[in-house]
From TrEMBL:
The chain crosses the membrane at residues 20-40, 296-319, 339-365, 377-401. The lineage of its organism: Bacteria, Bacillati, Bacillota, Clostridia, Eubacteriales. GO terms for molecular function: transmembrane transporter activity. GO terms for cellular component: plasma membrane. This is ABC transporter permease.
Amino acid sequence: MLENIRLSLQGIWAHKMRSFLTMLGIIIGIASILSIVSTIKGTNEQIKQNLIGAGNNVVRVQLYRTDYDYVYDIGNEGIPQGITPVDDDLYQDILDLPQVEDAALYTRRQYANPLYYGNKELSGCEVLGVDNAYFSTCRYTVDRGRTFVPADFQEFRPVAILDSDTAQLLFQGEDPIGKTIEYNGTALVVIGVVEEQNQFEPVINSLDDYYLYMSNFTAGKVFLPNAIWPSLFAYDEPQEVAVRAANTEAMSQVGTQVADLLNQQSQNETIQYRAEDVLQQARELQDLSNATNQQLIWIASISLLVGGIGVMNIMLVSVTERTREIGLKKAIGAKKWQILLQFLTEAAVLTSLGGVLGVAAGIGLAQLVSRLTQAPMAVSLPFIFLAVLFSMVIGVVFGLLPSIKAANLNPIDALRHE
């Protein structure tokens, strides 16, 4: 076998231009498919990262009326009937679930009433009434000031914590700690500014991406002690739950389990708890991306078919050129299978070299496309191995007919061939 590989490399080197032109179809096919697959893989990873963010593994279980977030209806319709606040026992049941690392209860208003600081107004904030566990669960760190302490809840203190976006927009570089803001007619003293760990901004390449990924982003967040929430809105408002899963893949399962626990206590068939299944959203978008790009892969595969036909053609020419050599080898005792193996090896080596060059060209092409279009790319090492292996298989398949022809030559006729 090693001798056959050596002879094949010598033959390829002796006819460099012819060999390169023969490999060109394989190189183009492998390069095209690899660049498409790399772009698909990169796009899928970006979709997942855009939806899940920095990977803090927090899934939110919220109230929905069919497919609509019920928080938008609370202001108009009031508190939904049959849904009670989460008690201590139910909260403990949530914490005891497998794959749950931490959990926090909160209430919220999306796109709430404006915040005021002096004569400055800030609209579009999300206002949340949180418990003591919220900041650790959702991985917030203190940038300035402090978070809530037990006395803030016990004494119903009118205090607020801002995230860094809200602090910057409302105070424009001024230190907010100790300042008084107004929300919903209530004066609140700012006691801290927090930032989410590993804060992640989705990659936006188009207007469609903006509407897809930014729909859940607001101008910032304001956190209040949940103890003062009833004085701002209404008593016995149902809470939602933020749960941190042990890992990203467990988020869907954890979200479903928490929603099931909450819905067991609910007596409202119209409004139910449901988890944001960002992994399912990511999978649906990835499937859509894959379905579109599978067509491109099939089109690129035509180049491999053309390349295989080119290999068959050149191997038939090679058999014709080396007929006397084949006859001489048979005359001195070479078996049919030895002749067959020699030509199959030559075809496989030829296409394998084309596969290696195609992989290199595909990686370069994927990087070029990524830079020109700002599309992400991610090279798959298993696919590189499969690409080279597949190119070898193409050589074996399309080199089989010429190899059989060479193996079946009559030694007497072959020696008399001019």
